[in-house]
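Record Diguanylate cyclase, GGDEF domain, 387 aa.
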Amino acid sequence: MNILAYSELNSFAFAFLFVIFLNVRNKGQKYLYDQRVFLTMLALNAVLLVLDTMQWILIGKPGAVMRILSLLTATVYCAMTPFPCFFWSIYADYQIYKDEDRIKKRFVPMVIPLILNLLLTFLSVFYGFLFVIDQNNIYHRGGLFYFMAGVCYFYLVYSVISIVRNRESLEKKVYISLLLFALPPFLGGIIQALFYGVSIVWACTALSIMIIFLNIQNSQLYTDPLTGLYNRRQLENYMRGWIKNGREGAALGVIMTDLDSFKRINDSWGHDAGDQALVEAGNILKDSFRREDLICRFGGDEFVIVLKIKEGGDLTDAVKRLKTNTRTFNERTEFPYSINFSVGFDVYDRESGMSVQQFMKQIDLFMYEDKSRKKSAEKTGAGLHKI
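=>
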């Protein structure tokens, strides 16, 4: 395959990644941890496609400037090569355990191979460990080139083992997609290692990203089209994963809210106003909770927020924040109606053995108790302020 063919292949893969990037960004779902990791992986793959193309273009070009460019491109390329595989291992771990703290605890040992590869990369400029640029400006593999390849395969194999060991806790479609991710770069890397001059590994990795996008990240599967929040399916997947694989001692708080007088908004101002009220309610929730909290439209005018907390007081503080932001919205809004929530919340007790459905029913009961208290207060003239 000649330089033009490789450039066309890489350009096509880059364009495809760019379309996926725009799709994920425009859906507004990048605030959760797995979306951020996915976009990082995608961006790294795109940069490596550009660097790979540049290396082909620079091969054999004479002159000191071209030599400097060749050295710089090869250095950055070798330094970055294991990073997509590293972030893939993080992504797979999160899909299995849904636990950022677990990843943080394992970050230091997992990053050691990356650091060693970075060290060898920069030393290669002087000693040719991973690569050599000869006097004719032609790239050659160094004596320790396969160390870099080994780092990449370490992350891929480690992830595959984790996925297989925890297959019972994964939805079948997610399990198969996670396994399939490793296959194209694994095979592409072997072919590229065995046949010097073949360069297809990053196009193969782009194919893997497409697999993940279509089967796991696709927003139509996991987000509500009206509000842009996550939907009930994503909530249940997240809760099941955390209950089965979450770190011992970690606490999970859940808040369920429902719009007061939503039927009256629909009846008085029409369904368009009702839809707008749901969108504004979603915006209030986004402003009230952290980026890493899971905010979902549960159905109808009900919303659920899942938070990782250190103590029960964190959950109470979050509810207070919601009350404050709701009050501020109502003071400033130009809409003819107010947004008001009834709220139920609790901390999931792992020892209870409750399923996701059982726990959600309990939270739902607490929420309707809050709604009933407000209605009783209104009837008796107590005038309790709605949140």
